[in-house]
């Protein structure tokens, strides 16, 4: 039975950090403050982001400062500090301080662990520092993305894709590179998936979509004009629309029936900026697996068929020495 998923969702699916992390943080909750801040940064106004910066740079500041003193340190108001606490899942500053004390206490007795990566790269960083910084930052980005994921939303997206007659994927630049991997994988399990990285071609395809189609727009910021325009046209045509972005309040997200968010984008040469593609790929890999699960037997069979089709194009392993032309000696 075909699902008319073009507009079956009369209410667009959204999720916020408050939905991901309960406002009353339970003592047993293992989501750290650092990960909560990473997950919520894209929704923080500049004043609130300054509070986050103070907390990240001086983890024990909440224990030493009153709410007013922390506000002064962050050049903002006590009300903003309270909103910051609520955004990352606490009822207020008091509960936030209790959690800070708990984390610092655990850290003092825990075995030494890799240091928290800096947000800035220094021009004189030695390779070993860059390796550690990248490893830690990529790990944090993946954890933050996993923490933010609305599994109901991404599962609904996978179901729609599996039941569609046609899938358009719109993305440009770095997001286009990630989208190409998704398109290739879905195509190999039988999804009629097409990637459009140029607005002229993408808009033409979007105009031909209907309620049997699904359209995905991928943009880290959610503001890439070409991607927004292509997804908008697909929505007008009646396609079920999916946005994959770090900003659930962005223009791209506003167009979508389902929004899936990744870790926040940092528009500078910082470790966090380099982790954006890993967060995107994590979400796209999960979406691919969820689509494959919709009909696992068929997906597996199609993967086998496509692998066999290209097997002859792979270079065989060398089993015998290469015979050189007479007069040419092998260089040893």
From TrEMBL:
<dbReference type="InterPro" id="IPR001347">
    <property type="entry name" value="SIS_dom"/>
</dbReference>
<keyword id="KW-0804">Transcription</keyword>
<dbReference type="GO" id="GO:0003677">
    <property type="term" value="F:DNA binding"/>
</dbReference>
<dbReference type="GO" id="GO:0097367">
    <property type="term" value="F:carbohydrate derivative binding"/>
</dbReference>
<dbReference type="GO" id="GO:1901135">
    <property type="term" value="P:carbohydrate derivative metabolic process"/>
</dbReference>
<dbReference type="GO" id="GO:0003700">
    <property type="term" value="F:DNA-binding transcription factor activity"/>
</dbReference>
<keyword id="KW-0238">DNA-binding</keyword>
<dbReference type="Pfam" id="PF01418">
    <property type="entry name" value="HTH_6"/>
</dbReference>
<dbReference type="Pfam" id="PF01380">
    <property type="entry name" value="SIS"/>
</dbReference>
<dbReference type="InterPro" id="IPR000281">
    <property type="entry name" value="HTH_RpiR"/>
</dbReference>
<dbReference type="InterPro" id="IPR047640">
    <property type="entry name" value="RpiR-like"/>
</dbReference>
<keyword id="KW-0805">Transcription regulation</keyword>
<dbReference type="InterPro" id="IPR035472">
    <property type="entry name" value="RpiR-like_SIS"/>
</dbReference>
<feature type="domain" description="SIS">
    <location>
        <begin position="157"/>
        <end position="297"/>
    </location>
</feature>
<protein>
    <submittedName>
        <fullName>MurR/RpiR family transcriptional regulator</fullName>
    </submittedName>
</protein>
<dbReference type="InterPro" id="IPR009057">
    <property type="entry name" value="Homeodomain-like_sf"/>
</dbReference>
<feature type="domain" description="HTH rpiR-type">
    <location>
        <begin position="31"/>
        <end position="107"/>
    </location>
</feature>
<dbReference type="InterPro" id="IPR036388">
    <property type="entry name" value="WH-like_DNA-bd_sf"/>
</dbReference>
<dbReference type="InterPro" id="IPR046348">
    <property type="entry name" value="SIS_dom_sf"/>
</dbReference>
